[in-house]
Amino acid sequence: MKGGMIMTTTTEFQVTGMTCGHCELSVREEVQEIAGVETVEVSAKTGKLVVGGDSPVDEAAVIAAVEEAGYQAVKQATAADSEHSVHPVQGVTAEQGGYILQEVSAPATTGDQGQLSFTITAPDGRPVTEFETSHEKELHLIVVRSDGTHFRHVHPAIDGNGRWSLQWQWEAAGTYRVYADIVPAATGESLTLTRTVHVAGSFEPAEAKTGSTRDEVDGYDVVLEGNLTAGGASALSIHVLRDGQPVTDLEPYLGAYGHLVALRAGDLAYLHVHPEGDNPVEGQTSGPTVEFSVAAPSPGRYYLYFDFQIDAQVNTAAFVINTGASSGTAADGHSGH
């Protein structure tokens, strides 16, 4: 209370897919059902959704409610998000340190084949053509839908003019975040720049998950163990099994025996993740466990994506974990540096 009045905390989201007043009504009705929500302002024209309450709203619940209405929502990043984070976050803006991820060109709808391409410009406005190698690549391109699904980690090629490109086709409609993880040679500093891309088509929302620490991919069972705690580095272990037996043939991939990407649900901020242990030697294999140190910038829900390679084939296991909760027990199974 302040001056006899209740102070309302608001959180802003960007919603895609709304075209009419009925769309606004559907979103409003779903969001108003969330515990603690007092006010809902939504505009189909601007795509803006502002949710208010006596305390900060459950961002993941709002995003799930919007998806239930048939649309997609992404929390709008604010300066306060970074200020309140225990660790500085990356991957929430297209610009960092004067370097800019320019507009991403990609097929407009699902089913269309084409190229995904972009340039990164330096503080002087010129395209950057020289990058340092990080985790065996000059650029890591991460693409994921705003609900945490349809994750891809790929490595495009660069031409002499500084334009990165690769063949591309979207698997599903929706709003996607595209991240460029780079180290410009001029500075030697790691940057993660991002853009939002809207893909037309029939949108099918994914089932919202509150927690998932086990995934099955291409015959492998992958299990996440450990506690993710905001306020410092957390140790997480990932175990890979085949037919119930621990694997011992994990191959080096991107300079380690696995690669982990972590994103904060809501604004999809890109986390700082380090693999533990010695760097592998070419030809060595390991398993079944790969360990990581993850710095969660704030309390909340996080999406984790673990890339691992066996027999020259790269697979990705996906998890959902909440800070402050043990991830040693599987929940809602489905189916990084």
UniProtKB/TrEMBL annotation:
<keyword id="KW-0614">Plasmid</keyword>
<dbReference type="InterPro" id="IPR006121">
    <property type="entry name" value="HMA_dom"/>
</dbReference>
<protein>
    <submittedName>
        <fullName>Secreted protein</fullName>
    </submittedName>
</protein>
<dbReference type="GO" id="GO:0046872">
    <property type="term" value="F:metal ion binding"/>
</dbReference>
<dbReference type="InterPro" id="IPR036163">
    <property type="entry name" value="HMA_dom_sf"/>
</dbReference>
<dbReference type="Pfam" id="PF00403">
    <property type="entry name" value="HMA"/>
</dbReference>
<feature type="domain" description="HMA">
    <location>
        <begin position="9"/>
        <end position="74"/>
    </location>
</feature>
